[in-house]
Design a protein that fits this description.
Blueprint: E1 7-12, H1 28-42, E2 46-52, E3 61-65, E4 68-73, H2 83-88, H3 90-103, E5 110-114, H4 115-129, E6 133-136, H5 141-147, H6 155-167, E7 170-173, H7 176-186, E8 193-195, H8 210-217, E9 223-228, H9 237-243, E10 253-258, H10 265-277, E11 284-288, H11 295-301, E12 304-307, H12 316-323, E13 328-331, H13 336-339, E14 346-349, H14 354-365, H15 375-380, H16 387-406
Parallel strand pairs: 1-2, 1-5, 2-4, 5-6, 6-7, 7-8, 9-10, 9-12, 10-11, 12-13, 13-14
Antiparallel strand pairs: 3-4
The structure holds uridine-5'-diphosphate.
Length: 410
């Protein structure tokens, strides 16, 4: 096993880890990269995250903490562009990355790339640098297409993912489910996949006094159901809105849908129209994107957080809510079946049928007459998902991959 401090190059070409969370293309992956890098830095490993400039005001280098930094590289101009357009600028990105590395005399032990676009950069550079390439896909195009909700993923992505899944040295999957999908759809060898869950920042996500949180947010005594995430058809927000009429007998019920940003306006309008058609427009609020550090107030003020998704690679929002002591109703996606304790910290339902979501939301809202645990116990149920535990597991994977790369098993 290789021990000691590692020098890691992380790639996140299309999505900036310090970008606006909850917007179209910036969500769990960004949180994952920045929290993991920060934690690895604390442990003495050096992490450089390379991403595309997406705002002319971006400084080239941002320190994310001890030994962890974010490096912006020019590729296709300095403004937001659609992630598929980023594909055509990957050669420019790669070239600028190499120039930066050489200019600053940097050497890395391994590459850890995120999402298929960055995987392509990693695949090319690992050969030049002669280091192993570890990948995390975050979502799989082929699984999205099988579900068939929202835009179809192009064949270009599916082919690229298949090649990467077969050729990179190692893959980190956040769930056993994703491991099985990689083996089934892309033919990855099982021994090249390590399963490490995602984490939650337990210092940031902790319970705030419910009354104070409600006062701060102006929620009064309403019963609050919370959704947090990107406004994407795959998130199943329409199903959650359709669940509200089943809960008509609950006084002062309010659904708060957090997330959005300018590129999600059309999706939000569709959801508002749906609420209007169901005559519940006054019970559904769309406050837009909320900063990550403000979310503990929302989770703490809520009576229930709902994750009605058709697909999640992991489902960070559920972890964050539980860390704040608020129970969750979720569909059986990502890692939610192992994160949520049925009947104790929330409920996992087989699918997002509105009546099924409503049944379980009603149970959470009728606390304390149910067996749902206290705020303190709900929080305690996710204590093992601290970023320090996750970083430790990731480093173990990296060391094994490096050892095998340097001394291949014959
Ligand atoms: N998020 C946020 N503000 C918002 C909406 C979402 O900070 O307005 C964050 C949320 O707290 C979570 C991430 O975006 O950390 C979404 O991650 P998740 O794994 O739930 O979904 P993904 O974006 O990966 O589909």
């Amino acid at each position: 096993m290789v021990s000691g401090q590692l020098k890691i190059a992380m790639f996140s070409a299309h999505s900036c880890p310090v970008g606006k969370l909850g917007a179209k293309d910036t969500g769990g992956m960004s949180v994952y990269i920045r929290e993991l890098a920060h934690e690895l830095g604390k442990w003495g490993h050096s992490v450089d995250i390379y991403t595309r400039v997406h705002d002319p005001r971006d400084p080239q280098i941002i320190n994310l903490g001890q030994k962890a930094r974010l490096i912006h590289l020019m590729a296709g101009g300095d403004e937001e562009i659609n992630k598929l357009v980023v594909y055509s600028y990957l050669p420019e990105f790669t070239c600028n990355l190499e120039n930066f590395r050489k200019h600053n005399d940097l050497k890395y032990d391994l590459i850890f790339s995120h999402y298929w676009l960055s995987g392509l950069v990693g695949d090319y550079l690992q050969q030049r640098w002669n280091v192993p390439h570890i990948m995390m896909f975050h979502t799989l195009g082929i699984v999205k297409n099988t579900i068939g909700i929202g835009e179809d993923e192009p064949e270009l992505r599916i082919e690229a993912e298949r090649n990467l899944a077969q050729n990179c040295h190692h893959i980190i999957a956040p769930t056993e489910k994703e491991k099985k999908e990689l083996i089934l759809h892309y033919g990855t060898l099982p021994e090249r996949i390590g399963v490490v869950p995602c984490g939650v920042n337990l210092e940031q996500f902790k319970p705030v006094n419910k009354e104070n949180a409600r006062q701060y947010l102006g929620f009064g005594n309403d019963k609050i159901i919370l959704f947090v995430g990107r406004i994407d058809p795959l998130k199943g927000i329409d199903k959650l809105i359709k669940a509200i009429p089943y809960l008509q007998n609950i006084q002062g019920l309010r659904l708060v849908v957090i997330g959005g940003g300018e590129h999600s306006q059309r999706e939000i309008e569709k959801l508002q129209e749906l609420a209007g058609n169901l005559n519940i427009q006054d019970s559904v609020a769309f406050p837009g994107v909320v900063k990550h550090d403000q979310l503990p107030y929302f989770y703490s003020a809520a009576d229930a957080c709902v994750v009605p998704s058709y697909y999640e690679s992991f489902g960070l929002v559920a972890l964050e809510s539980l860390a704040c002591g608020t129970p969750v109703v979720a569909t059986d996606v990502g890692n939610l079946k192992s994160v949520i304790r049925q009947g104790e910290t929330g409920y996992v339902v087989t699918d997002n049928a509105p009546h099924r979501l409503a049944d379980k939301i009603a149970l959470l809202l009728s606390r304390p007459s149910t067996d749902i645990a206290s705020t303190v116990s709900i929080r305690a149920s996710v204590s093992s998902f601290s970023w320090s535990n996750i970083a430790e597991a990731i480093i173990r994977e990296c060391q094994l991959v490096l050892a095998n790369y340097l001394t291949p098993v014959s």
